[in-house]
Amino acid sequence: MAEPQRIVIVGSGLAGASAAGALRDRGYDGELVLIGRETHRPYELPALSKELLLGNAESPHPVHEPDFYESRAVDLRLGVEIAELRLTDRAAVDTNGVAHSYDRLVLATGSTPRTLPVPGADRARPRTLRTVEDSVALRAALVERPEVVVVGAGWIGCEVAAAARSHGAVVTVVDPVDLPLRRVLGPVVGAVFRDLHERNGVRWRLGVGVDGFVPGGVRLADGTEVRGDLVVLGVGAKPNTGPAERAGLAVAEGGVAVDAALRTSHPDVCAVGDIAAHDHPRYGRRVRVEHWANARGQGEHVAGTLLGADEPYSAVPYFFSDQYDLGMEYRGLADAEEDELVVRGDLGSRDFTAFWLREGRVRAAMNVNQWDDGEALQHLVDVQAAVPPEQLRTASLSDLA
Ligand SMILES: Cc1cc2nc3c(=O)[nH]c(=O)nc-3n(C[C@H](O)[C@H](O)[C@H](O)COP(=O)(O)OP(=O)(O)OC[C@H]3O[C@@H](n4cnc5c(N)ncnc54)[C@H](O)[C@@H]3O)c2cc1C
Predict the structure, then answer these.
(1) Residue 27, domain extent
(2) Phi, psi of 98, rounded to the nearest 5 degrees
(3) pLDDT(294) > 80
(4) pTM for this structure?
């Protein structure tokens, strides 16, 4: 296949901007267009629920230095939203009807926060967190020390609760699941996060969902109400697959289906980041990962695919979070309800590493407030090492790796 002369990337978040950088790094010197509906140069999202919300930073980290786009001849078209893809004409058409033609197209449109379709939602206008504007507005509201209801005890909900407490707000977190982060971390490690937030003054309403918004708060499924001047939703995100779906690209796992090398069902089109339902060579199934490292890694990898390589993207998922004085990293992909949990260190003092094993092999590892073993943990997870639990608890991890 001839090398493309004109590559268009739709979505100017981390995945799209990383793809643009990697294309130039690999020597691609054809036309390169990066289209995004936001008006900011590409930036990273993690600070939006951490440093920016806490007031420790004024702006999120940029994906590239400001002069990158001009100096590397990346035609950055901001404030432009792609509405339709015309696959047979090789054109991405924006909401003004302008057609952006391409030889190869990369879709990197990310996700949009889910809302709660329950009575009163239209009037209550609960907040969500996805853009720098959302974060700046939420911080401005939090410094007023309102009573806050956070709906959803996942990563975003927990980080928002921690930031809200740091501003002195009264915070209640509601979730129909009985423990925060239980789906990812299981009951034992989920309880560590419940206790952490409790020690920092968060009130929990767990095991019961929100079934309506009422003036000054939310109503729960058990009929009780929780007061809140401010309601923040952290109930997950929906991949922005609209243009891809309307164009007839195959979808899976709620995202755009891509093969191991990140190609969609159309040979001219790739997809990366939050929207990509990736046929992961390590797991033998489709995996859609909504994390920073995946967006960057797939963005960089797709450059090779566009330029003719046929290499699978095989990195294991990785993510991180910071809440109060707890910092953590998670590597791999486990089923926390089914896999065997092995803990090294002390859960109570939040200074530990958790491993999840299946059939004696390490499927995932999470280090909490421990920062010396990253490489060893990466190796153990990468090779799914078979290590007896007792050794994981006590032996030197670098010796095991
Ligand atoms: C508040 C927050 C905190 C997070 N913290 C962490 C963390 O601590 N650790 C971690 O690992 N991950 C974290 N994540 C997740 C991580 O940031 C995302 O997985 C990653 O940013 C996804 O990158 P992306 O490029 O696929 O999507 P995005 O970053 O969402 O970028 C997609 C871009 O495409 C644009 N777009 C969408 N549709 C169109 C269209 N039709 N036309 C043009 N442009 C379009 C969007 O406006 C957006 O700018 C966090 C996410 C959020 C929201």
Answers:
(1) 6-112+237-306
(2) -80, 130
(3) yes
(4) 0.97
